[in-house]
Amino acid sequence: MLAVLNPETAEPPLDLLEHLVDQSLLVLGTDAAGETRLRMLETVREFAGDELRVGDAEAATQSAHMRYYLDWIEGIRAALTDRRDGRAIRAVVRSPQVPVCAMRRPFQ
């Protein structure tokens, strides 16, 4: 989310997330490890995608999304190879689907 927000015009991220949960546009849940996760309803995701295409913001949003995850992956790579940081392994174990989903999403 931080990757696509414009810091000059956006609400604080936690306020925005809370508002979206209050409006039932995001759903709170937990993953198998008990970590809190936010999930977007598929109908909301489809509507948001349609709005991005109509507003001609799709390419910029996809680019920001991709850049965020490429930076995340690069940080994990550096932590594993350069610093041998165990936190990187835990980050990948906690969210093994993140890199795959991030790379697939722009092409769906």
What features would you describe in this structure?
This protein is mainly alpha-helical and 108 residues long. It has a domain of 52 residues. The chain has a two-stranded antiparallel sheet with strand order 1-2. Helix 3 crosses helix 4 and helix 3 runs antiparallel to helix 5.
Layout of secondary structure:
Layout lengths: L12 H10 L3 E5 L5 E5 L1 H13 L3 H24 L4 H9 L2 H8 L4
What is the radius of gyration? 16 Å
Order of helices and strands: HEEHHHH
| Low-pLDDT segments, ≥5 res | none
Shape: globular
What proportion of the residues is helical, as a percent range?
55-70%
C-alpha termini separation: 19 Å
Overall pLDDT level:
76
* Strand fraction: 5-15%
| Structural class by helix and strand composition | mainly alpha
Helix count, per DSSP? 5
- The strand line-up of the biggest sheet is 1-2
Largest sheet: 2 strands, antiparallel
Count the beta strands: 2
